[in-house]
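Ticket closed. Logging final result for AraC family transcriptional regulator.
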Amino acid sequence: MKKTTAGPPPQARSFFKHSIGNARQLDRLNVEAALAVQFNPIRGMQTSIIIEGGQSQSLSLWKTQSDTGFLTTPKVHLDVITVRFVIEGAMLRRDRRREHIGQPGRAMMVMFDHMKSEEASSAFTALTATITPSALIAAHRALEGEGNEILPRFVPVVDLVGLPLHILMRTMDRVYRQLQIGVPEPDLVFPLLEEVMIYQLLSAWPRDSGERVRDAAPSTVRPVQRACDYIEGNLSRKLLLHEIATAAGIGVRRLQTLFRADTGKTPVQFILERRLDRAHADLCASEPEASVAAIAARWGFTHMSDFSRRYRARFGETPSVALRRRG
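Final structure:
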């Protein structure tokens, strides 16, 4: 077996797309693209592949589509965990000691370094993410509110049953689409979405050997009030759930449970509503010639269609109407 060589993790970059339709394009992809795997045709067939994805500081996320199928083998050493939802077709993954089959209705969470090869069928589509163990450990520690430095043992292949796993898949798709349209630097919503996705992964994925997620402690008002006070004082900058939980003196899981019990909302919903309220106040206090986009960006809304949709749902009118009414 050919030994893989060590290499650095992929660098952060904007959304990318590779379209492969012939042998020359496939060779160029394998030589020039900063990918961790080598793509090969199946039994000498012409290969048709489209790979679209992007990266942030803590994860990579991409969608793969192929009419013909393909075979991949690792090119570099990467200490990351692969999470994959196969949407169409099937994928046979050969690890050092076992094989896994990914197909619609099933999901996979495996170590990249354990892979020997992956073979995708024809008419194949999958949504895949890779996350570093250190990022998952940090999220696990924040979620549980304890100093545990060891990840739980997760079942490698699970049936896609139950609402939590379906919500995780939808959140992954939403993060993918957000990366696709771009994430400007002032955006205050995407970091929350990305963080929530990792917490959903840790909470929704079944654990091996009878491990159980700890139940939350009974609700009290004081931690939620501390969390609300911290949110109100920091609405104009990037907010993450783990720092809000730290300010409240509890773990992320308990923060989410107590917040919903005491307010009827998730922390993310509360943050978005309060930022919308601040934008609404600024619009109502501004002159008619003021920029709606500038006011929205002040409170972290960098995509105007998303901002307008949320604003109208909360206040019953568009931001531009609110600004003109001020005049």
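DSSP finds eleven helices and 14 strands in the chain. No further action required.
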